[in-house]
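Bumping my old thread because nobody answered last time. Still need a sequence for this structure:
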């Protein structure tokens, strides 16, 4: 078994070295475009540099689908690019070489169809005597999109005649081929239209009660399998790829870590509620902090002008840019918490730095604040350098970080 493992590593290393040392100019037949009285599929099949993709077409059972007189535009990865993709995806034989035969047929079919646009003739470089629609920056619907509406559209970037697709920074290799019924663009990357893992950008409210319906906003909410509050799955409805509505369960306490799972991965963590509320309408029963100091501004700890929840908030007027406010409260055990939670409202868009236990800029995190709405901020302790603190902490520091005067309101300060 050790000998086989060594051979596998040597083979894999040799392949990767070969892939890295290969360059576009070494690829025969893709440096320019010449008229070829062959079909678009025939061009792919005849090009020895595109043999892996052609093999994928055959293994996926798509030859009869693509080898027709219909118009097609192909975006085909070179063998070097396709083999590198196979290695990266783990489709290698016992010696570590890429093996397309190991790719499941359904996966292979989606890969192939993600590289084909049906019903159009498009190209990048203009050729004399050739009439065609020219590729421009935008999105195209592939045959994979027609089969699966959850997939992303194919992103096309054309700048100064250089073609890049699917968000790659690698340009297409040379110019494209054109045949009797379409074009073949040769790529240095493999296209994947699978959505990324979901991302939760925010929750509609910072606190909740059982039965509340919370709106989760974000991206990539595709094929959602579950929404969880901690380890508990909750009832949810997917409104769109950017919005989910979830019902707070009957046994909800005062807080939860919210995550979304899809067929394509798990989201980041969003937080709901707090374990301890430092300021709701006051500081643990007192209208003001235990102690405070500031520069470049002033504050009202019992303002009623803008309130997120309850009846009071903290109004901070930053007379000068880069002004700061320090607030001390009862000591808390650092080990009990992992997030700083705070709601902040700004009269104009700004940037504010927060830190706990310290006042130095490099001990805090600056966050962008949208004007005219309550921003529910959740900052992990790992971003606040709490490893530099002792076992307890007892202060919150905020600093105006845009360099501009302005007014902000703070509410629902706590820790989770």
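Sorry it took so long. Here it is:
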């Amino acid at each position: 078994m050790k000998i086989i493992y060594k051979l596998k590593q040597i083979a894999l290393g040799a392949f990767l070295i070969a892939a890295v040392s290969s360059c576009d100019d070494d690829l025969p037949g893709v440096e320019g475009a010449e008229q070829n009285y062959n079909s678009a599929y025939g061009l792919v099949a005849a090009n020895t540099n595109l043999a892996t993709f052609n093999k994928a077409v055959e293994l996926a059972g798509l030859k009869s689908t693509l080898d027709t007189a219909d118009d097609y535009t192909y975006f085909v990865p070179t063998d070097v690019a396709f083999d590198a993709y196979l290695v990266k995806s783990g489709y290698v034989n016992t010696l570590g070489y890429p093996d397309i035969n190991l790719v499941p047929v359904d996966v292979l079919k989606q890969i192939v169809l993600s590289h084909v646009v049906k019903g159009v003739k498009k190209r990048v470089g203009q050729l004399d005597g050739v009439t065609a629609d020219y590729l421009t920056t935008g999105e195209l619907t592939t045959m994979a999109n027609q089969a699966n509406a959850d997939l992303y559209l194919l992103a096309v970037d054309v700048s100064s005649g250089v073609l890049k697709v699917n968000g790659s920074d690698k340009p297409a290799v040379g110019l494209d081929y054109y045949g009797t019924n379409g074009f073949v663009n040769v790529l240095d990357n493999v296209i994947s239209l699978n959505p990324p893992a979901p991302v939760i950008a925010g929750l509609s409210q910072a606190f909740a009660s059982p039965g509340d319906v919370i709106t989760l906003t974000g991206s990539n909410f595709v094929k959602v399998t579950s929404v969880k509050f901690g380890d508990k799955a909750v009832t949810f409805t997917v409104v769109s790829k950017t919005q989910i509505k979830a019902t707070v369960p009957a046994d909800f306490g005062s807080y939860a870590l919210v995550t979304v799972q899809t067929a394509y991965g798990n989201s980041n963590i969003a937080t709901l509620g707090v374990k301890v509320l430092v300021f709701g309408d006051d500081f643990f029963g007192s209208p003001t902090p235990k102690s405070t100091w500031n520069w470049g501004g002033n504050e009202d700890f019992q303002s009623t002008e803008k309130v997120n929840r309850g009846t009071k908030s903290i109004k901070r007027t930053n007379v000068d840019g880069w002004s700061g406010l320090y607030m001390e409260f009862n000591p808390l055990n650092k080990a009990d918490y992992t997030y700083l939670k705070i709601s902040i409202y700004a009269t104009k868009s700004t940037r504010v730095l927060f830190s706990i236990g310290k006042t130095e800029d490099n001990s805090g995190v600056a966050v962008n604040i949208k004007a005219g709405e309550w921003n529910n901020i959740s900052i992990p302790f790992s971003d606040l350098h709490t490893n530099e603190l002792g076992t307890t902490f007892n202060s919150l520091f905020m600093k105006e970080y845009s360099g501009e005067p302005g007014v902000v309101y703070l509410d629902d300060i706590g820790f989770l």
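The CA atoms of residues 166 and 191 lie 6 Å apart. Let me know if any region looks off to you.
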